[in-house]
């Protein structure tokens, strides 16, 4: 009986040590423009970095499967600016008036998508989709890459739903 209890305690200690080692992975709670450029390059999203004229916060344009998108870093402080949230968005010019069907497609996307949020810019004749990556509290590099990896899929799904609503495909 003692051996069984000792073996159980040893296994528990081993599992705890393993979990503790996993917890030692580096995390980041914010990113600079250089950090953002690096992770976008690693994700194959071809960034071009600029900054917001009013705030100096990092802004990137990129390409996800042929779609130009913008990443705006927000909740920034310091020099260089270190930002806690990344907001990615892609707008699509419809070259026509917004219709009720556009609103239905956007609402349908928002009802079904686990990631991303679609919207209508009625005055501009555009629809779009955005996606927020929140670094608050700290996240691993793997988490950031995993989230960035979802972005092209989010854009693609939204585009498919918009096209499908008008072509029946």
Folded structure, characterized:
The chain is globular. It starts with a helix and ends with a helix. The protein is built from four helices and eight strands. The protein has a six-stranded antiparallel sheet with strand order 2-3-4-5-7-6. Helix content is 42%, strand content 31%. The protein has one domain: Yope Regulator, Chain: A. Helix 3 (100-112) runs antiparallel to helix 4 (141-167). The chain is an alpha+beta fold. Mean pLDDT is 89; it is low at 4-11 and 13-18. The relative contact order is 0.15. Residues 1-21 form the signal peptide. This is YbjN domain-containing protein. It comes from Parvularcula maris. InterPro entries: Put_sensory_transdc_reg_YbjN. Keywords: Signal.
Topology:
Blueprint lengths: L1 H21 L4 E2 L4 H10 L5 E4 L6 E7 L2 E11 L4 E12 L6 H13 L4 E5 L4 E9 L4 E2 H27 L2
Antiparallel strand pairs: 1-8, 2-3, 3-4, 4-5, 5-7, 6-7
Helix pairs in contact: 3-4
Secondary-structure element string: HEHEEEEHEEEH
* H/I helix tally: 4
CATH topology category name: Yope Regulator, Chain: A
Task: Tell me which CATH architecture applies here.
Answer: 2-Layer Sandwich
Terminal Cα span: 66 Å
What's the arrangement of strands in the largest beta sheet? 2-3-4-5-7-6
The parts where pLDDT drops under 50 for at least 5 residues are: 4-11, 13-18
Number of strands: 8
Report the sheet-strand fraction: 25-35%
CATH class term: Alpha Beta
Number of domains: 1
Choose one word for the global shape. Answer: globular
Give helix % range: 40-55%
Q: What is the average per-residue confidence, as pLDDT, rounded to a whole number?
A: 89
Biggest sheet layout: 6 strands, antiparallel
Structural class: alpha+beta
**Spatial extent as radius of gyration:** 21 Å
Protein name: YbjN domain-containing protein
InterPro entries: Put_sensory_transdc_reg_YbjN
Keywords: Signal
Organism: Parvularcula maris
């Amino acid at each position: 009986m003692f051996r069984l209890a000792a073996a159980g305690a040893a296994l528990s200690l081993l599992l705890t040590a393993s979990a503790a080692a996993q917890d030692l992975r580096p995390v980041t709670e914010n990113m600079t423009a250089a950090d953002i450029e690096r992770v976008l390059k690693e994700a194959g999203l071809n960034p071009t970095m600029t900054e917001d004229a009013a705030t100096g916060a990092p802004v990137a344009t990129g390409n996800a499967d042929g779609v130009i998108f913008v990443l705006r870093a927000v909740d920034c402080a310091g020099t260089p600016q270190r930002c806690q949230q990344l907001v990615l968005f892609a707008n699509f010019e419809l070259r026509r008036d917004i219709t009720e069907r556009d609103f239905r497609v956007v609402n349908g996307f928002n009802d079904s998508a686990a990631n991303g949020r679609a919207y209508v810019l009625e005055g501009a004749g555009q629809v779009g989709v955005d996606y927020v990556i929140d670094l608050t509290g700290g996240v691993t590099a793997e988490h950031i890459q995993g989230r960035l990896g979802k972005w092209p899929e989010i854009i693609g799904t939204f585009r498919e739903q918009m096209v499908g609503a008008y072509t029946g495909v």
